[in-house]
Amino acid sequence: MLDKVLDRLHDPAVYALPAMALLIVIEMLAIKFGDDHDERPGYDLRDHRASILTGFGALLSSTLLRTVALALYLLVYEYVAPWHLSSTSWTTWVVLFFGVEFLLYWYHRAAHGIRLIWAGHQVHHSSQYFNLSTALRRKWAQWFEKMIWLPLPLLGVHPALVFTMHSAHLVYGLFAHTEKIGKLPRPIEYIFVTPSHHRVHHGNDPEYLDKNFGSILIFWDRIFGTFQPEVQRPTYGLTKQIETFSIWKIQVHEFGNMFRDVRGARTLRHKLGYVFGPPGWKPADDGDGARDGRHEGTRDGSGATSGAASGATSGPAAARQPGELLT
């Protein structure tokens, strides 16, 4: 156990922490003293603090859960996988990269489509600001995220390589969480997840909900119909903002809402719907209405919502009306 925790020090995401801290400070200074002259604030020190403290908690949670997952995946790799792929072969790294990319895409879609998973994932979307510190704003309930990698050990990829590649994706994600980088050259925008694409993902505007799930590559979204270009500056945060900087409330508030809904449900079907249905799900006989979380109303299969994101008009997002068209 201790060896696994110490191995965490060799994680790419841990190595990158000093650079992340420096970049966050540089971006904060650029926002404060830059020449954008934007009336909408780009950061709040209280929000920065909440995101950073949340990130440290997530690092601890990830270390513990990854230790358990690594032990289980090693059993699969050693005793179930029909073959073992060489870690020195370039083909293994190709399988590894695209395997992690593909699984992350579908996990990310599930996190937006199943309330139980969304209750954890909403942490990352709860900031009403979009800057580099937002990349650190991660959930502590990472149990499902650690479960998605099973196909790769089954294919003979060593579990340690899987977690290393996932960490590399997390490091890349830091670059995508900023408003200081505009749209990049068209070939880059077409292939890779860029800050423009990820700003859309964090927007709570109706046209931006449940879009751009990719991690490094954006073509999964293009293939599976979840791509949305950035046409105006998004309004960030949940569709019903939580208005708190408490890291505990940020982590658990949606689990609390879900448990209250389950406790008040009249039938088993309704209880299951509140847990495994999409965020905002309500029984049809309860009429229209919204639930705390990213989505208001009932979503259809395409990810659109029948409700408006009216809950986003309070707090720091109050002034964040759609900006000018982007080109």
Description:
With 327 residues, the protein is mainly α. It is 52% helix and 0% strand. It has helices at residues 2-7, 12-15, 17-33, 45-79, 90-113, 115-125, 143-147, 151-154, 159-176, 186-191, 195-202, 219-224, 247-264, 268-276. The longest helix is centred in the first third of the chain and has 35 residues, at 45-79. Mean pLDDT is 84; it is low at 288-294 and 296-327.
Outline of the structure:
With 327 residues, this protein is mostly helical. Helix content is 52%, strand content 0%.
Strand segment tally: 0
Q: Helix amount, in percent?
A: 40-55%
How is the main sheet built? none
Following the backbone from N to C, one meets helices and strands in this order, namely HHHHHHHHHHHHHH
| Poorly predicted regions | 288-294, 296-327
Distance between the termini: 51 Å
Global Rg: 20 Å
Oligomer: single chain
Question: What is the averaged pLDDT score?
Answer: 84
Structural class: mainly alpha
* Overall spatial form: globular
> Helix count?
14
**Strand proportion:** under 5%
What keyword list fits this structure?
mainly alpha, globular
